[in-house]
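I am still getting used to backbone structure tokens and would like to learn alongside you. To get us started, please write out a protein record for me. Once you have written the record down, we can walk along the chain together.
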Amino acid sequence: MVEDIQAEDANGQAMAKTTSTPKSLRFARDGIRTGEDFANTMSALMSDLIEGSITPEVGNAVCNAGGKLLKMVEMQYKYASPPQVVKERPNIALAELSTASE
């Protein structure tokens, strides 16, 4: 739902501001689990900021949180311990393959 709200700029001039349900809200509800999710969320966030669907303060907070998320991923990639080498063969039953010579 879109509703028109009258607001004033820094000079006291009346300006129309429209608010609607932010597009980035859908991505936020689904969660950010991949790089594609992050890119989609940030893209929608930019659109929301330009449209005036969210306040600059909320946009700033989301960008700060996104930066911390990226830093966490970078640190995991950089400092994570190497994968453990399995010394024992796992006990997995595989389907037997039939050979053409039978």
The CA atoms of residues 75 and 95 lie 40 Å apart. The beta strands are 3-8, 14-19. Confidence is low (pLDDT under 50) at residues 1-5. The longest helix spans residues 56-79.
